[in-house]
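Make up an example, fold above all:
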Amino acid sequence: MSVGSARTAAKASIPRPRGRLPVIGDVFGISIRTPVQNSMEVGKSLGPIFERRVLGNRFVFVSGADMVAELSDDSRFGKHLAPGVESLREIGGDGLFTAFDDEPNWSKAHNLLAPAFTKSAMRSYHRTMVDVAGELTEHWDQFVDGTPVDVSSDMTKVTLETIGRTGFSYSFDSFKRERPHPFVQAMVNALSHSQRTTLMRSTALGRLLTRRSDHRNLADVEYMWAVVDEVIRSRRNSADTGPEDLLELMLRAAREDDPNRIDDLNIRNQVVTFLVAGHETTSGALSFALYYLSRHPEVLAEAQAEVDAVWGDEAPEFEQVAKLRYVRRVLDETLRLWPTAPAYGREARVETTLVGKYPMSVGDWVLVLIPALHRDPVWGDDPETFDPDNFLPERVRSRPAHVYKPFGTGKRGCIGRQFALHEAVLVLGTILHRYRIVGDPDYRLKVNERLTLMPEGFKLQLQRR
């Protein structure tokens, strides 16, 4: 028996949906637009491990806490690029997120860029983050008359501007534009296209049907590359030494013949990766957090009281962000319910058996379905309830390891985790300190999936405090 391979002997031991058809597989009930939420629903009836076959592709989903704990063992398992992630290589090539484990540029880039996420580096980014959060509040101050603001759109502006300026000293002028920067629309189009067409491309008919949209997608991707190439070119053409950011680390390594230097194509791939992954997931986390705060007035009041007490009336210093412990718990709980990067693949490095039941050969792989893991029974009797106290220190210590994975796992986990957390807590604190936020009582959460997760159609009314 084998998990995640084409072998058939494992079918009897791994649950699957009813009604499988020859060739096309488990297509009844499948949703191309919301595959994560659809798989969460399937898992409720089939359990913490199940398989789905679609157009010749086999997927094994795992969410049990005991299974994920074993899959987190880097001596037995490594990163696997599932089809949805591998398709993103069309955008980011062998960037940190989409590189295969054995590609040399992954280790080179990781070693080269790790210093950009140390505490001292984070301190150097703080003022820029404060400035961008200030641009958000200047923008939102125009709407304190009760005009609703589009939360997801504005959080995208904040996070894109932040990674652009801190990582590459490049401004997208996000709050000076009436419409989002074309890079954002091209990115959204490319991510949505990737999700819709990944499975279809596995068949000749599917490739024929997606030909027209593939041409449109190529135009979007080429536009993204052109923007990034201009960022790199403008830095190289500058007479001054660049600031100590991600781009300067890469360009200096090339100039100085560093052993970890990467070529121009990989520099582009890394910049694209950070611009996309460095803002898309954080904007979703901020949007979901504001949704839950608007729905839980007692949590909102406690979070605002903490911000007022810790920050006072001055712009926060670097150390004061980490002191917002309750706001951080709000964010952690938000990422428990809706981890914005909702799945990751794990591949067997050695012949092994998962939880003593499911043999895996070298190369066999599974998908960890993070939202389902975060609703495992270890989270209590009502894991759907939003409760920031789930992250009180004593509760964290009482839970098994490896039951909370919003940033992935192992050496291929998110390199920018601390960057994202600092930015998100800072932005949330800034909003809570300045505004009373009111959500539409008739709004029902709708989660948009474009490989990352984001609330759709969520708006807030603002009042100055």
In short: The first strand starts at residue 49 and ends at 54. Residues 92 and 272 are 6 Å apart (CA to CA).
